[in-house]
Amino acid sequence: xxxxxxxxxxxxxxxxxxxxxxxxxxxxxxxxxxxxxxxxxxxxxxxxxxxxxx
Length: 54
Description:
54 residues; mainly alpha; 2 helices
């Protein structure tokens, strides 16, 4: 299995990673779908699905 190559610029990856970390830190263990829902309602602008990032 080879590594995933992201199409997202490194700066945006860092911002997205921080937003996801903050959601999990604030709301505890979550499923990927629950985490995505919390991020979508935040002021952070993301693609429509997590798979859009790869």
